[in-house]
Write a structure and sequence with these properties.
Helix content: 25-40%
Shape: globular
Oligomer: single chain
Order of helices and strands: EEHEEHHE
Largest sheet: 5 strands, antiparallel
Radius of gyration: 12 Å
Number of strands: 5
């Protein structure tokens, strides 16, 4: 799930940093995000620690992400 963050979006990497979709997005430095019925171009993909962006997530998601011990997130910018 993507949540608005600064000039783009943040994703919690619940399966870790080494999943194929993350590798592919970084390798291509961009893609398209389906968000609330809109297709949004994204680029400038970068990893960050969950603790640095946790306030971007709604409270209930933070509780869940803490329970499952998420450590990493992905930040992307809108094109």
């Amino acid at each position: 799930m993507a949540f608005r963050f600064e000039d783009g979006f943040v994703f919690a990497l619940t399966y870790g940093r080494d999943v194929d979709w993350v590798k592919n997005l970084i390798a291509s430095d961009g893609g398209t995000l389906g968000y609330k019925g809109e297709h949004i171009g994204i680029h400038n993909i970068r990893h960050t620690l969950y603790d640095e962006v946790k306030d971007a997530f709604p409270f209930l998601f933070r509780v869940l992400l803490n329970i499952i011990s998420v450590e990493h997130c992905l930040i992307v910018e809108r094109k």
